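Researcher: Good morning. I'm working through a list of sequences from a screen, and I'd like to move beyond sequence-only analysis. For each chain I'm collecting a predicted structure so we can compare shapes side by side. This is the next one on the list. No need for commentary yet; just the structure.
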Amino acid sequence: MTGSAPAHRLDLRLREMAQLFNSMDPAPFLERDLDPDAEEYIESWAMAFPPDSRFHLTLHLQQQPAQADPERTISEAVHNFFNFKAELARRDLRRLLREGRTSLLIGLCFLVACLIAADAVSRNAGGSMLALGRESLTIIGWVAMWRPIDTFLYDWWPLWRRRRIYQSLGRSRVSLAIPQKAEASGAAAPG
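Model: Good morning. Structure tokens for this chain:
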């Protein structure tokens, strides 16, 4: 990924900084989970782009945050959250591939046993019922390979992609847009 690739921009409009975080999570801001609705919105938006995309999240807050450096606080919290999600996705991918290898070993052993049995049936007898038995054993053996084939052809890449998106979100640029407090003016309010 080159630094010159365009950054995809998402603008979130919030009343206050606390809206971004899960109110049920008692952890400090830097370790808190994002609000489930905010998390789902950010993830679904990011999933529309290639996995190695660069992201820029801008939070438009209506109220001035109480923190001394709110942009750094929110940026670190968002990065921590999505880096944690990337680690969870990595673990899920490793678990899936480990289960895939196990199911592949079991499936191959079962396939070999079925093919040996089908060969024994075809050598020792003739007739349509035994031919049906031979074909059935062959088919059952190959059907046992469905799960490992499904894992290694299709199941792994959505987890890999999700992990890459989370990693990109964990490196995203996060900025705040906070309205400046209106300075008191000498003009009287119309009335």
